[in-house]
Amino acid sequence: MKNKALDPVKLLRYRDSIYASDLLICSVAYFDFFSFFKNTPRTFTEICEHFKIVSRPADVMLSLFLAMKLINKTKTAYLLSDVSMEYLVDSSPESLVPYYASLKNRPQCIEFRDILLSGKPAGWSSRNDGSDWIKAMQDTGFANSFISAMDSRGSFLAKMLARKIDLSCHRSILDIAGGSGVYACALNKRHKHLAAAVLEIPPADGAARRSVEAKGMSDKVHIIGGDMFNQIPKGYDVHLFANVFHDWDIDSVETLVANSFESLCPGGSILIFDAHLNAEKNGPLPVAEYSCLLMHSTEGKCYSTKEILEILRKVGFIKPEILGIAAYRTLIIGNKPAVGVVRFDGHPGLNGKSGDGLFK
Hints:
There is one protein chain. By secondary structure, the protein is of the alpha/beta class. It has two domains: 18-117, Orthogonal Bundle (Arc Repressor Mutant, subunit A); 144-352, Vaccinia Virus protein VP39 (Rossmann fold, 3-Layer(aba) Sandwich). The protein has 14 helices and nine strands. It has helices at residues 9-16, 20-31, 44-51, 55-67, 82-87, 97-101, 107-118, 133-136, 140-164, 182-190, 204-214, 250-263, 285-297, 305-315; strands at residues 71-73, 78-80, 172-176, 195-200, 221-225, 238-242, 269-275, 318-326, 329-335. The strands form two sheets. It has a seven-stranded mixed β-sheet, sandwiched between helices. Strands 1-2 form a two-stranded antiparallel ribbon.
């Protein structure tokens, strides 16, 4: 970027963090969450059982409160921070519980109560038609609108990703669930030798095709209609999942990584670009805030780097690496082994380049 003053990171955070306060209000108003910890540290299982809440939204909530420094964590249990003991416990003389509870009728607070108890997401942007994000994407109008929104965000993030990654030793890239194709287009512009394609499920593939055409990239980026959960097309030596995993539960993420490993060319690489929590799941705060939005409206959340690395290793990818990109987004890379292809550090992958050679 020519002018750091024009960096949109704060604007992205204002939008992405919008549901975090509602989750905090919900936890206080409907569950009196912090009073449960007044005198005793609590394990994750005890928390879920006491409040009868489901593990996925509970995990997102606890990560948020850790990042907000409202709770602390030992190896086995969670406990209150001093500020929560003073202000968020109902029996405290300085309690702010009634102040928070006065906002409990906000629609998003009510939705979070139901999500915590059921684990099922609400409608995207609190739509009242009963459709969660997955069902809504089957509607052409919603798919067009959603992909346009992601293209808007991607115009900045895709450029930042393209600047940080060197794909000069690769031949082709498949942008899986690539939406508008903004990432495939940005990477092709940076690496003009790279054959690029976008895999997107119908009817979203139509929106992707129109978006790529509008960018004047139809002769460079091919659109493939298909379901990434059934089969990923073969013949590509790079698979990109950009802001994809956070829409799905952990079992679905593992399925996608396994499908990628199966179809990826030997010696190829999987690239996972997303907002990731750190290994301890206590930050960064903007990622923990964004995870609330995802938990609210999709089956997913922001995963930690540790969770993604464990899946990569389990499936068979070797020597994963992590690189910070921009706006609290990170790139995680895994390499598929190949006979006769040796990395500088002695491990196969990256077409003979060193483990650091993929990144500038």
